[in-house]
């Protein structure tokens, strides 16, 4: 998915200087962004208060939207560099095309994982014949320096492992949780899991104390470590936890995101992740001149132009503002 903000601000993310080394309860509120078509997203990362959770560098939550009489998601071809995109749906379907030739319809609780590596372009759209509702999350994972120039590729995993307890089903999207490991390719210690809680459930989820974590609320009413979450909000939890108390006041859906704090400082601008402003400038030029990022074939429409770079030089700001 693209960041369609026409005036994105470059920022430096990563580094351990602002990692919270103990359990905290830091509630993050979203910023609303229009993506095209009828889709509006709630952007949780990067946030005014926090830019990363482990290697997770970008989190959008959207829906549930009634698109029965709408075109739904329509994101034209656009580039990515230095990251992985994770497409995750609770309702609806998204048709993915990319410059490696991949063509895949992603459906609820299936993993669409695109590794941009050095350069890729892709589009995302609701199929012409689509379900009434669209509801999901789009996330980016930053690639470490040792792997950020890998060949671009796309993975689709329709069957994912689960961890169960009374009233809880946890689908492991990336990484591993309580002994269950996702087949999705990862490049740093990370975990992503979809949590389904039945009304009245009280349970504790095992965690890795070396990871930092956050929980995104997708639907319903749930309390995470006694903090009530409404859909479209996210709770940052810090590090040092061995378990996480969960309580559902209704049927609820959550996403657990975590990982080892990301040591490297990253420059993020539009849909690019690099290590300095020169890399971002070159990536923008390559996209605008039609080199390096390839071509998305089969999309009915024009590709996106990159926004202008700001006149002011990039100033490092760390993991939080």
UniProtKB/TrEMBL annotation:
Transmembrane segments: none annotated. Pfam families: Pirin, Pirin_C. Residues 41-141 form the Pirin N-terminal domain. Residues 193-292 form the Pirin C-terminal domain. It comes from the Bacteria. PANTHER family: PIRIN (PTHR13903:SF8), PIRIN-RELATED (PTHR13903). Belongs to the pirin family. This is Pirin family protein.
């Amino acid at each position: 998915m693209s960041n369609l903000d026409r005036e994105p601000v470059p920022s430096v993310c990563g580094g351990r200087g602002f990692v919270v080394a103990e359990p905290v309860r830091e509630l993050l509120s979203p910023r609303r962004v229009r993506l095209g078509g009828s889709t509006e997203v709630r952007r949780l990362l990067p946030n005014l208060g926090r830019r990363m959770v482990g290697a997770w560098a970008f989190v959008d939550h959207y829906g549930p939207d009634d698109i029965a009489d709408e075109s739904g998601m329509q994101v034209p071809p656009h580039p990515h560099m230095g990251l992985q995109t994770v497409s995750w749906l609770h309702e609806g379907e998204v048709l993915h095309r990319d410059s490696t030739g991949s063509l895949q319809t992603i459906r609820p609780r299936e993993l669409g994982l695109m590794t941009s590596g050095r350069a890729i372009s892709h589009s995302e759209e609701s199929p012409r014949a689509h379900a009434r509702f669209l509801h999901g999350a789009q996330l980016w994972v930053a690639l470490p320096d040792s792997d950020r120039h890998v060949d671009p590729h796309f993975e689709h995993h329709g069957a994912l492992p689960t961890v169960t307890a009374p009233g809880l089903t946890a689908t492991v999207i990336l990484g591993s949780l309580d002994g269950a490991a996702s087949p999705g390719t990862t490049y740093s210690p990370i975990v992503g899991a979809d949590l389904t809680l039945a009304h009245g459930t009280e349970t504790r989820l095992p965690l890795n104390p070396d990871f930092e974590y956050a929980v995104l609320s997708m639907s319903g009413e749930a309390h995470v470590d006694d903090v009530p979450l409404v859909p479209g909000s996210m709770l940052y939890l810090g590090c040092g936890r061995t378990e996480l108390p969960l309580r559902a006041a209704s049927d609820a859906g959550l996403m657990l995101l975590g990982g080892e704090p990301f040591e490297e400082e990253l420059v993020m601008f539009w849909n690019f992740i690099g290590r300095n402003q020169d890399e971002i400038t070159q990536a923008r030029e390559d996209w605008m001149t039609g080199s390096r990022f390839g071509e998305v074939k089969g999309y009915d429409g024009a590709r996106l132009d990159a926004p202008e770079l700001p006149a002011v030089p990039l100033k490092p700001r760390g993991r939080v503002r």
